[in-house]
Amino acid sequence: MPDKTTSVVSYAAGASLAAAALFYVFGPTFTIDHDTTSSRKKTIVGLRNQANDCFINSVLQALAGLPELRIYLIRETHRRRIEDPSVYAHLVQPLDGKELAQWKLQGLQDGLVTYGLKEMLDALNERPISKKAISPFPFVKVLEMAFKQRISRQQQDAQEFLQIVAERLKDEYHAGQRARLYARRQGLASLAESSQAKDGNETDRSDDAAENADGMEASTSGTQIPITVDLAEVQRAVREIQAAPELEDGFPLEGKYESHIQCQTCGYTTKPREETFCTLTLAVPQVSSTTLNACFDGIFKTEYIDDFKCEMCRLVQTKTNLEQEMVKSTSDSFKALAQENIQKLQAAMDVDPERPPEDVELGDIRYAPKRRIAKTTRISTFPKILAIHLSRSIYGIGQITQKNSAKVSFPEQLPLGSVMKQRKYKLLGVVTHRGGHNSGHYEAFRRQNTPSPYANINPFQPSDIYSKTPTPISTPQISALRSDSPSISTPDLLSPSSDTTPSTPSLESNGAPPRSVPVDLPSSLVNGRDRDGETSSLRSITASTKSALSKLAPPRASLNGSSSPSTLAVGKPQPRPKKRKPADKWWRVSDEKVREAKTSEVLGMQKEVYLLFYELEPEE
């Protein structure tokens, strides 16, 4: 007989194991994303601060909350994986004349930082079942390998780290784009050459075939006709590729702004000078409080500058002086030379005043006329993700730098552009800094984006290299012919029998021709008569289902104008769901510490705000 103590211990162990099994089966520790009914506390993955790396951690957390950036990384890495590796093996130098080192260009075409950032952001967007923190060192190691130098931990500036990452991602995108464009050009060029050679050979063979023809028609049945390539079509494709860049979804952080100068005296406007940017640096004025719009005015507001030397006015002055000297002069050779120079100056004024003729003496630049000009800068290409850096550095005498602690109020919805061409941005991420200019701590705020079902607009269209039509989260509900009759909404209740008709004509209003019922109904039910007991019992089931569905279905107009839920008619289209409001919940991340925050708390960080991340909203 077993010992009583052993039995008690065995029973206790078995009970504990059963309790643990029940807990993990009926009350698991994992939760479904955005499950409002769950009582478990949600969190995200934090980043360990191993060597004063808060400036790295805050930027990575903010980037992890940008959906457009994650979509770009998925598409770019997928494109590089499915294409032929030889496309990126051939090094293609930039077109601006700046030749890069072989190791650097190979790293750009391989997309080292693109792959590394995707893996890091994927790890940060994991939904952990408990508190979890990872190290940013794997991504830092990728950066050090890409630049072949150590990342300096002395500066510890979040904006400099963001600038390094963004510029590198942009360079890798353009390097890959050049490699793909070069491969397409080479492929089409070789295809055009082979097609041209083949066309010449077929012309020679056609002459021999015409001489040997005996007047009989050859049968083409059962023979395979070779597919030939149209040479003109190939050449046209080559010209289009050479004339226009490859049509791709570009780097989402890359935007462009252009500036031009207008002389207030002659009215001449210079050609716009376009520059690209990945982050916009806005200077914070030295006041107690200001707004983000006021910081934008420091760059995009029209600026008036005095004592500027206008090129057009300089050419006009030189031309006027030559005309006056030609009138006073008695030398025919001088008049001929002056007349030639005047014509050259007039041609430069008509074409491009900023490129004066080299063989015409314009005089000393010190005596050029000084004018008042208006300088205007505007955003020409709006990026999908707008990264804003608020410069809070105050440079004093003797290289003494202080931090500007002015309050900067920033909106949740940011409109940019002119009235006719306005774009709206939504706030998705904020990086704040507490402390002085030489010390402090960075934190990140990222919005809790709730994914919504995407509309599959063209489900039957062929897909591209990567599908631009997003896949819906759940199975779409196809709304075809809608009827409130229980016989149609529940066809399994009515099985066709021997005395059913395949189609039963139904009356239509306004003298319209009858239409067939889309499902097979018993004729006894259609005519309103019961033929046997089975039909009566079936009718009672249908009636009960009908009464239940009538409470859910809206009333419809019957033939005599009254409302009847049993009328067989095509239902109206369902109203489109209302656009969801932006989520009011945020994550406040301080290295490994993660807690929830609200929008009001984020917008209240006016003294600490340092970096802002806005995402472009779709146009209505």
Automatic annotation (TrEMBL):
<feature type="compositionally biased region" description="Low complexity">
    <location>
        <begin position="483"/>
        <end position="507"/>
    </location>
</feature>
<dbReference type="Pfam" id="PF00443">
    <property type="entry name" value="UCH"/>
</dbReference>
<keyword id="KW-1133">Transmembrane helix</keyword>
<feature type="compositionally biased region" description="Polar residues">
    <location>
        <begin position="447"/>
        <end position="482"/>
    </location>
</feature>
<dbReference type="InterPro" id="IPR018200">
    <property type="entry name" value="USP_CS"/>
</dbReference>
<feature type="domain" description="USP">
    <location>
        <begin position="45"/>
        <end position="617"/>
    </location>
</feature>
<keyword id="KW-0833">Ubl conjugation pathway</keyword>
<dbReference type="GO" id="GO:0006508">
    <property type="term" value="P:proteolysis"/>
</dbReference>
<keyword id="KW-0472">Membrane</keyword>
<dbReference type="GO" id="GO:0016579">
    <property type="term" value="P:protein deubiquitination"/>
</dbReference>
<keyword id="KW-0788">Thiol protease</keyword>
<feature type="compositionally biased region" description="Polar residues">
    <location>
        <begin position="535"/>
        <end position="548"/>
    </location>
</feature>
<keyword id="KW-0812">Transmembrane</keyword>
<keyword id="KW-0645">Protease</keyword>
<keyword id="KW-0378">Hydrolase</keyword>
<feature type="region of interest" description="Disordered">
    <location>
        <begin position="436"/>
        <end position="585"/>
    </location>
</feature>
<dbReference type="GO" id="GO:0005634">
    <property type="term" value="C:nucleus"/>
</dbReference>
<dbReference type="InterPro" id="IPR050164">
    <property type="entry name" value="Peptidase_C19"/>
</dbReference>
<dbReference type="GO" id="GO:0004843">
    <property type="term" value="F:cysteine-type deubiquitinase activity"/>
</dbReference>
<feature type="transmembrane region" description="Helical">
    <location>
        <begin position="12"/>
        <end position="32"/>
    </location>
</feature>
<dbReference type="InterPro" id="IPR028889">
    <property type="entry name" value="USP"/>
</dbReference>
<dbReference type="InterPro" id="IPR038765">
    <property type="entry name" value="Papain-like_cys_pep_sf"/>
</dbReference>
<comment type="similarity">
    <text>Belongs to the peptidase C19 family.</text>
</comment>
<dbReference type="InterPro" id="IPR001394">
    <property type="entry name" value="Peptidase_C19_UCH"/>
</dbReference>
<dbReference type="GO" id="GO:0005829">
    <property type="term" value="C:cytosol"/>
</dbReference>
<feature type="compositionally biased region" description="Basic and acidic residues">
    <location>
        <begin position="199"/>
        <end position="208"/>
    </location>
</feature>
<protein>
    <recommendedName>
        <fullName>Ubiquitin carboxyl-terminal hydrolase</fullName>
        <ecNumber>3.4.19.12</ecNumber>
    </recommendedName>
</protein>
<feature type="region of interest" description="Disordered">
    <location>
        <begin position="192"/>
        <end position="224"/>
    </location>
</feature>
